[in-house]
Design brief:
The protein has 9 helices and 2 strands. With 226 residues, it is mainly alpha-helical. The chain is elongated and about 70 Å long.
Length: 226
């Protein structure tokens, strides 16, 4: 099977499955963290998603990767060599994704262990309010997870993680001033409003252009409404 033929198969399957679920190209693109232009190219057979993206697409559409690879014109129960080989690759990929989730969980657990260790150590030597260490674990945890996901080029949760980082820092500073200096600086949380707005605007800059399908099979693009 040629590469072009495989790209066409994958594109046709993605298009058919997407439409059967009433999902637009923009909707699918947002769920797999790609632009709708990339989805459009896949469905036209001009390019093909990598194996990690195929796994993500299959999860979003509620199918297996085999369903994305199979020949839509083939008879049932006829699995080609390409599908068999890809199935092995998919199994390894799923294992790597599971390993990454475990790494994230272990890293997050390590952050909270350090916070617990700091609390126990400080409390043992008589430091008052050592429990404040747990508040600083919130932004620290967000930083660790953000760095790991960014290193793996998985940006789907970045907006949430950055928001947790901002509000976690503000909460930690507020609690330290309140407990240690007895100063109720609740207005510090007002700083989070422009910070959250900046986060929203930053990610909105990368909002994909909407692809509209028309009856003659051609496509045109429109900028999404705010």
């Amino acid at each position: 099977m040629t590469d072009e033929r495989l790209k066409t198969q994958i594109g046709t399957n993605i298009s058919n499955l997407r439409k059967s679920q009433g999902l637009t190209q923009v909707g699918l693109a947002e769920k797999v963290n790609y632009s709708d232009k990339a989805v459009s190219k896949w469905e036209r057979g001009e390019s093909a998603p990598d194996i990690l993206t195929l796994v993500s697409i299959a999860e979003v559409l509620g199918v297996t990767v085999d369903d994305l690879l199979k020949d839509p014109d083939a008879l049932p129960d006829k699995t080609g060599a390409v599908q068999q080989a890809m199935d092995q690759v998919v199994q390894k990929t799923l294992k790597r994704k599971a390993d990454k989730r475990i790494i994230v969980q272990l890293s997050s657990l390590l952050v909270w262990f350090v916070a617990l260790f700091a609390y126990v150590l400080l409390a043992s030597i008589g430091v008052d309010n050592s429990w404040l260490a747990f508040f600083w674990a919130i932004p620290a945890d967000a930083i660790v997870v953000l760095c790991l996901r960014s290193a793996w080029r998985d940006f789907r949760s970045n907006r949430v993680l950055i928001s947790i980082l901002v509000w976690g820092c503000l909460l930690s500073i507020y609690m330290m001033l309140l407990v240690l200096l007895h100063v109720n600086v609740w207005r510090i949380f007002l700083l989070g409003i422009p910070g959250q707005l900046a986060i929203w605007l930053w990610f909105r800059m990368f909002r994909p252009v909407r692809t509209v399908e028309v009856k003659d099979g051609q496509e045109r693009t429109e900028t999404e409404n705010p």
